[in-house]
């Protein structure tokens, strides 16, 4: 008997967020026959990009188009924009129409409707820190948690990285690549989640090409006016097999999980 397929809805804050922490798992799920849908909360219009991408005021449209190209590389079935504008990094007041300016309940109701329409079995969000702490990422965690109460799903998994693992990976990467001057490696010592909270560790080495293609799709986020590499561009310049070592696993937290660390986000689902 063939294994049962499920529907995974991956809820992200901005176009390109799917690429770094979850694209291998999304590609792996799609390759296994599961239906994968990406919901992006914002249009990414506040993202940093060179004038070549933002000069005509069309950055939001370009970033959503980049997301669709990334989704195609991963085998994702559908991409849905939740309807909000990018809130920006802060701490300034979020503009009207942005994700964090909207009440959590309103955004959760929108997401819950999508979960029902898609008949989602698994919802993917972020950990409570929002990864590195961007306010739109924190709001994804909050909205996702509430939406899962409104439209119950079988499992909620929160994308994260063990803090010690990412710090070690950055130290390895620095042996062969000099990160941009504005790259704050120390921030990662306070971000994401402790290893003790990890419940799912997914090996995605067979999906590395798809993951790299997902990253490459977001060309605007690898650009800068001064010609310096942005973080995404820096990651893509890491040579293999070091790239495989850094990005060959992805991690998740399921607050309801009990027992040893699982190898697949669908493990145990009927």
List the helices and strands and how they pair.
Elements: E1 7-12, H1 17-21, H2 23-31, E2 35-42, H3 51-54, H4 59-74, E3 78-84, H5 104-118, E4 122-126, H6 135-150, E5 155-160, H7 163-173, E6 200-203, H8 208-217, H9 231-236, H10 242-247, E7 249-253
Parallel strand pairs: 1-2, 1-4, 2-3, 4-5
Antiparallel strand pairs: 5-7, 6-7
Structure, described:
The protein is of the alpha/beta class. The protein has a single domain (7-253), classed as Rossmann fold, CATH 3.40.50.10320. The chain is 36% helix and 15% strand. It has 10 helices and 7 strands. A 7-stranded mixed β-sheet has the order 3-2-1-4-5-7-6, sandwiched between helices. Strand 4 (122-126), helix 6 (135-150) and strand 5 form a beta-alpha-beta unit. Helix 4 (59-74) packs antiparallel against helix 8 and helix 5 (104-118) crosses helix 6 (135-150). The longest helix is centred in the first third of the chain and has 16 residues, at 59-74. The protein is globular. 46% of the residues are buried. This is PIG-L family deacetylase. It holds the Pfam family PIG-L. GO terms for molecular function: hydrolase activity, acting on carbon-nitrogen (but not peptide) bonds, in linear amides.
């Amino acid at each position: 008997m063939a294994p049962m397929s499920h529907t995974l809805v991956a809820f992200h804050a901005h176009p390109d967020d799917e690429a770094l922490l979850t694209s291998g798992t999304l590609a792996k799920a799609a390759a296994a026959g599961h239906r994968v849908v990406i919901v992006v909360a914002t249009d990414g219009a506040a993202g940093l990009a060179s004038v070549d991408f933002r000069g005509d005021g069309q950055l939001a449209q370009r970033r959503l188009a980049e997301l669709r190209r990334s989704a195609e590389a991963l085998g994702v079935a559908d991409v849905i924009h939740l309807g909000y504008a990018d809130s920006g990094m802060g701490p300034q007041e979020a503009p009207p129409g942005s994700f964090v300016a909207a009440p959590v309940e309103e955004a959760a109701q929108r997401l819950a409707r999508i979960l029902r329409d898609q008949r989602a079995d698994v919802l993917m969000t972020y950990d409570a820190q929002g990864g590195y702490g961007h306010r739109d990422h924190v709001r994804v965690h909050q909205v996702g948690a509430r939406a899962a109460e409104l439209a119950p799903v079988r499992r909620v998994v929160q994308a994260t990285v063990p803090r010690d693992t990412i710090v070690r990976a950055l130290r390895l990467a620095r042996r062969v690549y000099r990160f941009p001057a504005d790259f704050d490696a120390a921030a990662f010592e306070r971000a994401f989640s402790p290893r003790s909270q990890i419940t799912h560790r997914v090996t995605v080495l067979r999906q590395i090409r798809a993951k790299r293609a997902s990253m490459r799709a977001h060309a605007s986020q690898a650009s800068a006016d001064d010609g310096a590499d942005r973080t995404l561009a820096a990651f893509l310049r890491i040579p293999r097999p070091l790239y495989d070592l850094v990005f060959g696993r992805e991690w998740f937290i399921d607050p309801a999980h009990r027992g040893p660390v699982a190898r697949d986000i669908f493990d145990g689902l009927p």
